[in-house]
């Protein structure tokens, strides 16, 4: 049994490639990095890779991570500038014995020494969004509310599992800010003997609950992926609201080592994409918070039409 699950509809095209790779017997490691790189390379996704929105200094700082579920090896980068495909740098770091999480100039030096592609990741389109934000009233100069990290959990035919994340983080964030996406246990976690999870939303709040590790822990205790996702998300949501009156966006996806999957969210219109051996054509689902549960439905034809229309318009 193989399978792959990803956050957000922007992963649809990449999961078509991933599904073909897994069906052909490719490894989870090769597949997940290939799929994330496809998202990183598309210039009209405002929250990942090339074309990602910049920080307050009009610099694109990228976070990414990779984890091997067999060995529990982890690699991550934070606030990486001027290099394409940070997920590939993270995967390379996971192969090192130490120094697995590098940030800023240290991450850039490592990428340069290992001959990763240098690239100006700030596009003219992203500059336009930055200028618009600067022109607005100072009271509205706040981080972009989308928090759209691409996160994937992958299971190959040999039973190996991996996970990977990539994001440009909050729009107009402080220089050097790093969210949950490259932080093991918060933005991602995977164990091939159990399963894996990945999170997207407000990193500062996701880190307060170590959401991804908590989901894997709950699965190890016998919860299904869906049960684990909902218990972890809504417990943290409730705790944050009780302690301070509000909670940021919390959305997660998970898959166990048998290809069963789940998701949970405390917002509306969280989208995810799933491809499995039993349903190899990727399916987009839309999830909505309903009380302490998540309602998950396949995206309607109209929803998909609107998505492709917006995606096409971005190219023009």
Automatic annotation (TrEMBL):
The active site is at 149 (nucleophile). The record marks 148-149 as: Cleavage. One of its GO terms (cellular component) is cytoplasm. The keyword Hydrolase applies. One of its GO terms (biological process) is proteolysis. Pfam families: Asparaginase_2 (PF01112). Keywords: Autocatalytic cleavage, Hydrolase, Protease. GO terms for molecular function: N4-(beta-N-acetylglucosaminyl)-L-asparaginase activity; peptidase activity. Substrate binds at residues 177-180, 200-203. This is N(4)-(Beta-N-acetylglucosaminyl)-L-asparaginase. It comes from Liquorilactobacillus ghanensis DSM 18630.
């Amino acid at each position: 049994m193989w399978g792959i699950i990803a956050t957000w509809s922007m992963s649809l095209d990449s999961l078509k490639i991933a599904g073909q790779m897994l069906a052909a017997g490719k490894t989870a490691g090769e597949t997940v990095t290939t799929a994330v790189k496809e998202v990183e390379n598309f210039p009209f996704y405002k929250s990942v890779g090339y074309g990602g929105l910049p920080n307050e200094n009009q610099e694109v700082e990228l976070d990414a991570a990779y984890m091997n579920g067999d060995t529990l090896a982890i690699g991550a980068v934070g606030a990486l500038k001027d290099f394409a495909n940070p997920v590939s740098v993270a995967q390379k770091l996971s192969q090192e014995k130490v120094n697995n999480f590098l940030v800023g100039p240290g991450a850039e030096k490592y990428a340069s020494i290992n001959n990763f592609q240098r690239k100006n990741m700030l596009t003219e389109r992203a500059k336009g969004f930055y200028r618009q934000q600067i022109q607005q009233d100072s009271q509205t100069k706040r981080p972009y509310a989308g928090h759209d990290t691409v996160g994937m959990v992958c299971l190959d035919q040999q039973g190996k599992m991996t996970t990977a994340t990539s994001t440009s983080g909050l729009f107009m964030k402080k220089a050097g800010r790093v969210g949950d996406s490259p932080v093991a246990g918060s933005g991602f976690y995977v164990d091939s003997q159990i399963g894996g999870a990945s999170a997207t939303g407000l990193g500062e709040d996701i880190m307060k609950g170590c959401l991804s590790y908590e989901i894997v822990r709950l699965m190890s205790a016998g919860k299904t992926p869906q049960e684990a996702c909902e218990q972890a998300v809504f417990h943290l949501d409730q705790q944050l609201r009780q302690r301070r009156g509000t909670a940021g966006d919390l959305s997660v996806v998970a898959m166990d080592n048998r290809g069963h999957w789940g998701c949970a969210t405390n917002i509306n219109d969280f989208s995810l994409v799933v491809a499995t051996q039993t349903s190899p054509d990727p399916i987009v689902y839309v999830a909505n918070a309903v009380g302490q549960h998540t309602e998950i439905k396949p995206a309607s034809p109209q929803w998909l039409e609107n998505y492709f229309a917006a995606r096409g318009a971005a190219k023009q």
